[in-house]
Design a protein that fits this description.
The chain has seven helices and five strands; from the N terminus they run βαββααβααααβ. Strand 2 and strand 3 form a beta hairpin. Helix 1 packs across helix 7. The two termini are about 25 Å apart.
Length: about 160
């Protein structure tokens, strides 16, 4: 029987992917039933002929060198797996029917102004819950795309 992973952990990982630069590669290890990441520096070290072979699991090294998105053991989590962050903000502004927030999203530097506004107007908790629900749904969709089972543990 395939192990179920934590939906909360998957959603948190998707959030980390969204917040990260291209410096990290995030992945799910089916065998270990865990989410993890590896830095670009470590990937570059693997590509060098003189890296310490005991530092990384040989299966991970083989998978990284293959440039595959998924294999029998590992699945890469990519930015394409995430909801569009701008659209999520637009949907939130629409859902709470806040015209000021809708207008902010049309201005220059909308992300910073959006966060400033939700924090100043006591909407931060509501926003972060909405955003977390979006990541949870993206994690469900991602899991279904790879026929993975998960435990519904979002609070």
């Amino acid at each position: 029987m395939m192990q179920k992973f934590s939906l909360k952990e998957a959603a948190d990982t998707l959030s980390d992917v969204a917040d990260s630069e291209e410096y990290f590669r995030f992945y799910y290890d089916r065998q270990e039933n865990e989410f993890s990441n590896i830095s670009q520096e470590d990937v570059n070290d693997i590509d060098d002929d003189d890296y310490d072979e005991t530092e990384f699991d040989p299966d991970l090294v083989e998978w990284i060198n293959s440039s595959a998105v998924a294999d029998e053991r590992y699945i890469m989590i990519q930015k394409d797996d995430l909801p569009d962050s701008y659209q999520v903000r637009v949907d939130f502004a629409d859902e709470i029917n806040n015209q000021t927030l809708q207008g902010i999203l049309q201005r220059a530097r909308p992300y910073r102004h959006f966060l400033d506004y939700v924090q100043k107007h006591d909407l931060a908790n509501r926003w972060y819950a909405y955003e977390a629900a979006g990541y949870a749904q993206a994690a469900r969709d991602w899991a279904r795309g790879y026929d993975l089972q998960y435990q519904e543990d979002m609070q």
